[in-house]
Amino acid sequence: MSDRKSFVWKQWLSQHDETSLQFGEFLKLILTLLMITMGVGGLKQWGLFQGLELRVYDRMVQLRPYHQPDPRLLVVEITETDINRLKQWPLSDEIIAQVLAKLQQEQAAVIGLDIARNVPQEPGHQALIEQMKQPNFIAVMSVGNSEADRILPPPRVPPQQVGTVDVPLDPDGVSRRHLMFNWDGKINRLSLPLRLVLTYLNADCPGYTPLHSSIPCKNIKPKLNQNLDYQLGSIAFPKLKPNDGSYQSVIGGSQILVNYRHAPDAIRQVSLIDVLEGKVNSAWIKDKIVLIGVSAPSLRDSVLTPLNTGNNRMPKLPGVVNLAQMTSQLLSVVLEEESLFWFLSERQELLWILIWAIAGLILSEFSSRYSYLLLGTGLLLTALGGISFLVFLNQGWIPLISPSVALILTVILGVINREYQSQKQQKTVMRLLGQQTSPEIADALWKGRSNLLESGRLPWQKLTATVFFSDIKNFSTLSEAESPEFIMGWLNEYLNIITEEVQTHHGIVNKFMGDGVMAVFGVPVASKTEAEIATKAQQAVNCALSIRQRLETVNQDWQKRGLPVVEMRVGIFTGPVVVGSLGGKNRLEYGVIGDSVNTASRLESCLKERQVDTCRILIAYETLIYLNEQYNVEFWGELPLKGKLQKIKVYRVINHLHENSNSTS
């Protein structure tokens, strides 16, 4: 009773150890995912992926469907042709005044002059002053980075008619943000686009009816909300935070991400000469926001934007057109309820990265081949890109590079872990089965190792196999007559013959017991049909017959060399066995146990004195039924075997039917 309790206790401990091992593996998996997620998230916070993410952002801007041109704006551009025809730069105040007068005559709603006029450019300065007194005129200034590079507004223009044209550039020199307010050391200056929109709203959006707003434009007033964000009517403009989207370096002022209209003619443009000569359609000017600025390449007032980065062949955007794009966005947000860009919080970004890390881990665990792994990784990255783009089409900017890195890292780590586990499994298999299997069995084992190996062990399984025992007749007498060194060398030569034949006939050598050998046919890959069991039984018998032939040959050679000539016995039995890892963590072997093993051993050792040939092969009826009458056999009767309660029908295998029978009964 005590032994039984001890056994049950050990079994429970064994199961508990396996559960603990599985939990440990699961915990290791969770820790790996968390480390990858936090590591990639940390690299993102340090700005490592910002450049790549911004390039992806630009590409998504370029891939968006074209927008309709904004009918509310007009850009009057000063081209190279205009400068050549007028033969002057900077343009005189007189010419600027004439253009402003023309636009006022055509009833422009608001006019923004994106040309510095803090210094008079005679002739015509007084005429320009008169034009700048108009309430719908907006002048410009630049706060700059210091007092030294600051551009002041025209002296006689009131502050409420001045807008800044400072455009923040990202580290790669691309304009993607709109600086709505800029502190000049004394007051917060509104940007030119914001100042134009406020003036347009105060004029009650002449000639334009908002699609989604029932509130009159003139009633849309600015204020600061409880989050201290700028708000126009019911529309808030949350400040761009340092880590919004994939930014890690957004600093200064109240900024928003520009939603560029993607179209070659998103903002209508006409030349300054055409305005002066009256060649512009009056409908393009009346009730419109008109910006006047430079597009001549020689004056270098142009910027890179997401519309013209990368391999895109679009030219740089003139500064005045860039400001018009920002103006267009503000109008659409306030009057058409167009969404501003939204972003994930830091925690949401980490969760987003974790999701794709898990996807990579699942892929690496369930991809049986590296080709499938590569294909799956490509499909997951494509899915990630597709989801990111769909979100972008709905005004969301979510990270793409960081989850891609997490996905690839987990796939790589999964491959490394698989290789590591594979090597561990291979060592386990080789430790258990050694070099004693045929190449075919080794290949079958390795292909099915995921089913065979559990926690570094071959799990126990019950199957039908053919067990083979061999032993040398009178080996004890031979070993007493020779030195140990001599016996070891000669015995190794003999055992090598046995091992080669077992492997050739697709069996495994399970153990050596001095001169005795135990081999098994039909393990560790179980035979699933009666035909497969029969094949393994026939392979065992063929193996014994081949050993007999080789033994007859080597005996002649050994006799010439003065070595002992031997006779041997083989016992073969087919029946159920239990196979799997046997031993503890410090020493494992491939165990084959069951009554079939005992029976095969007893067949080999029964009637030792009845040695009728060089290699006596005895089988039981349980093996004979699988031989399909392909062999000449001799019935020895129902014999009592040691340790067996019932007698066993025993047969001696003489040879294969296709051989000439020279054996005697």
From TrEMBL:
**Gene Ontology BP term (one):** intracellular signal transduction
Report the InterPro entries cross-referenced here. A/G_cyclase, Adenylyl/Guanylyl_Cyclase_3/4, CHASE2, Nucleotide_cyclase
Signal peptide segment: none
The GO terms this record gives for MF are:
adenylate cyclase activity
Q: Which UniProt keywords apply?
A: Membrane, Transmembrane, Transmembrane helix
PANTHER family per UniProt = ADENYLATE CYCLASE, TERMINAL-DIFFERENTIATION SPECIFIC (PTHR43081:SF1), ADENYLATE CYCLASE, TERMINAL-DIFFERENTIATION SPECIFIC-RELATED (PTHR43081)
**Know the name of this protein?**
Adenylate cyclase
Species assigned in the record: Planktothrix tepida PCC 9214
